[in-house]
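Leucine rich repeat variant: structure, please.
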Amino acid sequence: MRDALLGLAENPALPAELFARLVSGGGEDVLHALAGRERLTTAQVSALVGIGDPALTSRLVRSGLVPWSEVPEDHPGRALDAVLGGVAPLAAWWEAGTDPDAEVRQEVAYESDAPAEVLAALADDVDPRVVESAAENPRLPPALLPRLARHPSTVVREAVARNENAPAELLAELLADGGRPAPTRCGACHRRETACADHTPGVRRVRSTAACHPAVPTAGLTAFLDAPEIRTVTTFAARTDLPLHFLDRLAEHPAADVRAVVAANPAVREALLRTLAADPDPEVRRAVAENPAVPLDLLVTVATHERLPDEPAPRVEAATDAELRSLATSRVAQVRALVADRTRLPGDLVEQLAADPDPGVARRIAARPETAPGRLAELVERHGSAVFGPLARHPGCPAALLHRMAAHPAVGRRVLRDIARHPAAPAETLLLCLTAEAPDVRRYAAAHPALPAPVLESLLRDPDEILAGAAAENPALPVTLMEWITTG
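Here you go.
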């Protein structure tokens, strides 16, 4: 009955008296399941805290459910839990920030809502890990960044280079040579008494991190255009303020990942974009289609030859009504599919594309919530199982159509899974799903509120405990069966 008890603890329709019964008689896993419920009442939170289990109390406090005044004074880690739960007063921040355990102080220094004065103190901590976290925190007073950029450890300097408030002139210094004076510690010896003989790798990481900062002056990036750190190059290659000759050079980078980022950069000149559309790597060519500034004729060319992602294209999102209607009548099916993917689409174009003969266009239209339920049945008549996936996820899919798809011999596991959790799925369809071979399909069906009570009762007695747990979680479970679980 363990899984049934766990499912019941998560059941949104669990009555208050049964909640109390589970608190008094539930095991540790059941208590934690209760603590994870949405919209716990104040009384329920107090009951769980009253158990006196440190791990359970910590979870509740860190979830922000326990006011500071109600956190037990003898609770271990009281101050840190309150900090992480967003319920700590300033005194608790100071308490956690001066904890003897460096890991606790590091967590405080990492918190995005840490008080500036606490962070300022942690920036002088004896443990470099704590200083590193404080140096990266955007709440740190900016006036402290120049001093931390001269810290003996490259790890702290790297954290400064990640700080979103780091000023351009400071980033330029770190980019040039890792900062002055030369560091005496690096990542390898950051916490050791004995320093490494060479900190060059650490200096290189500081410089690379600075190169990734959006505020670093572009003039200093010249030396990184051919850098082997691909992540660094791909990061700054997306900047729209790069000099055009930088983009020209990056477009010839040996790494396709870099060229793809350049191809998607809206600051790229049209001539270069047309060159990248003929790149030998398909990812680069596809990135051209993702460029918000791609000319429509070039977008059509790329879509004619490349398979593009099933997501809105920026250029199509920004298309004028005339451009959109022109694309919707393109001879290239994938161009019409791009229109069907657009976030906002005039109703007449939805109707027009719903009659499109191409399955790729049909799948996009079938996924649109504004497609009328009557059109969905027509899409199945025209395209069959090719449109089952988006139809099973369509919020307005009729119950009869869901059942028809579930009974189809070509239905796949993913489609069945979506049908089993669709709000409109009727009981007879869910019974079909319960006979599926895929365990996840059966579990979703067992938790569906449209299942009749006799079926739920039989599922609770099923030898598959996970299935029984899913039935116990079902909000349609009668209270009598809930009580039977707690006494079984």
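Notes: The CA atoms of residues 403 and 429 lie 5 Å apart.
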